[in-house]
Amino acid sequence: MVCWLDISEKKRLELALQKANEDLEQRFRDHTADLLKANPQFQQNFRERQPIEAEFRVLSEAAPVGIFRTDAQGGCIYVNPRAQAICGYTFEEALGDGWQQLIHPDDYQQVLPHWIDSAKAQTEFLEEIRFVHRDHTVHLVRATTAPILSDTGELIGHVGTIEDVTERNVIERMKREFLSIVSHELKTPLTSMRGALALLSSGRLLDDPETAQEMLEIAKVDTERLVRLVDDLLDLERLEAHQLILTKQWCDTASLMRRSIESLQLLAEESRLTLVCQPLNVEIFVDGDRIVQTLINLLGNAIKFSSEGSEVYLKAELVNGDQWVRFQVRDWGRGIPQDKLDLIFERFQQANATDARQHGGTGLGLAISRDLVQLHGGQIWVESTLGEGSTFYFTVPIR
Ligand code: ADP
């Protein structure tokens, strides 16, 4: 139904509304003035509290930690901006039970009963909860609350803090994985060295020099493996702490390539593989030992993951207006799955779960190579087809 009011009627209503508003405001002012007059203590508190409340508001709004408050029933009545950013809700969305909507479905069943019990029992609540943001990122949040009691001991609400511990959690997990991998990598060669040395020292092999020689060989190989692992760990540590300084000088690319090939010649022969080198006679301003270290790692992997009788190919060429040298190490081995092409450059990552057992290695070589190449200002990447082989490339500027 459409109702037409004539102009004078509308005006009259507007005036009446305005009057009612003014009356209400006046009554509120009168009431506050009466209170202030009647109670000097209230007046004093009122004046004292104003700046304190303003100060607390500023603190809460700017605090680098999430803060929230609930009423006695546990319904949210306040969240500061940091809590909103951490959990992914707005102020309005968090109010009442709204904050619960963004809890990860797997945590919901466990967190809510715990929260309700602590709220009822007026005890502290401490929990790590996952929140799913609107952009679908998951944040692990550490929430702590404490009950707020009135002067008469009655529960009037809860105050809580919220901390984003996602990153800390990832770092802790990495630390645990690191320790477990390193201790495993240390233990395996140490166990076999101890076995070999125990046999030798028992004297049981005194009249079996051939087996004694084999035991010595095992101990030597495992010692070298340990030294390699410790060297890798030290390099990684220095790279991460930005303490690895390159000693750059002019080097002939071809001789760096030859040095790398020479140190792997024996391994290639043992694996019945041919190393083919297409050298480049160009001077580059690099840390020669670190470039050789990178080439040896790539060539060593190419040999490790190729089958007998095939070739491993090392080449270098000028690119980008002859300002850069691009090295490439090509093999015709088993190849790398597409979804692992980036991952294998991360620490302790291998393309197959069985690689460490079957081929040795710890998954540190490519992470170190990547850091060394990047320290030179270059890039490293791999192209590969499963079953057909892989080509690792890296670039360094000539100067
Ligand atoms: P490591 O060889 O000590 O395990 P790397 O960081 O050098 O460590 O290599 C990481 C992983 O990448 C290897 O374990 C392997 O799974 C994969 N990979 C590296 N190079 C090759 C290659 N040429 N062919 C197939 N897989 C490779």
Q: Please, how many helices?
A: 11
Q: Please, how many domains? A: 3
DSSP helix fraction: 40-55%
CATH topology of the largest domain: Heat Shock Protein 90
pLDDT < 50 runs, ≥5 residues: 1-5
Summarize this entry quickly.
The protein is of the alpha+beta class and 399 residues long.
Question: How would you describe this structure to a colleague?
Answer:
α1 (7-38) crosses α2 (40-62) and α6 (166-201) packs antiparallel against α7. This protein has helices at 7-38, 40-62, 81-87, 91-94, 105-121, 166-201, 209-240, 253-270, 288-304, 355-359, 365-375; strands spanning 66-70, 76-79, 125-132, 138-149, 155-164, 249-252, 274-278, 283-286, 311-319, 324-331, 380-385, 389-397. With 399 residues, the protein is of the alpha+beta class. The chain is elongated and about 110 Å long. Helix content is 51%, strand content 21%. The longest helix is centred in the middle third of the chain and has 36 residues, at 166-201. The chain has 3 domains: 63-164, PAS domain (Beta-Lactamase), CATH 3.30.450; 170-240, Signal transduction histidine kinase, dimerisation/phosphotransfer (DHp) domain (Helix Hairpins), CATH 1.10.287; 249-397, 2-Layer Sandwich (Heat Shock Protein 90), CATH 3.30.565.10. Strands 2-1-5-4-3 form a 5-stranded antiparallel sheet. The protein has 11 helices and 12 strands.
